Amino acid sequence: MTNNQTRKYIYIALLCAQGIIISLVERAIPFPFAVAPGAKLGLANLITIISLFTLPVNDCFLLMVMRTILSALLGGTLSTFMYSLAGATFSFLGMVVLKRFSRRFISMIGISAAGGLLFNVGQLCVASFIAQSWQVLLYLPVLAFLGILAGIAVGIAANFLFAHVKTLTSLKMQHEI
């Protein structure tokens, strides 16, 4: 194993650990809106955004899966794992497509907002499958609005980190070359 591979694996492990910690802390924060049960801020998506802009897609996908599995093992249930994995996968795939094909037209904030929306779509697809009813999807407008707002907030945070953390800025530039 080369020195660069070792650094990459350490970087992925650090991002994964940060994502798990953020996820566990977020779970401890009560959501103030009774209108949207099951809604959350999606702060751990910050790690996915950072990885999308600093790692190859396959490493980013591995990170997302590891973070989802470990977060569920440390503080979730089988149902939270299913919802999280579906939401994270929808979100990840959508953000990868937007980043790859709309780089000039959509900012990091826009990509993150789309990720917030798609996370909720993935969760509602699982809920619809479990409930054996498409009517669960009627909840989408509420979750879409909240997901887009949360995605914008996460995108702003990611922009801030890339602007002020020198290591991230250099990794982003290396990844774009």
Automatic annotation (TrEMBL):
The keyword Membrane applies. InterPro entries: Hpre_diP_synt_I (IPR014535), Hpre_diP_synth_I (IPR010898). The keyword Transmembrane helix applies. Keywords: Membrane, Transmembrane, Transmembrane helix. The chain crosses the membrane at residues 12-29, 41-66, 72-98, 105-130, 136-163. It holds the Pfam family Hpre_diP_synt_I. This is Heptaprenyl diphosphate synthase component I family protein. The lineage of its organism: Bacteria, Bacillati, Bacillota, Bacilli, Lactobacillales.
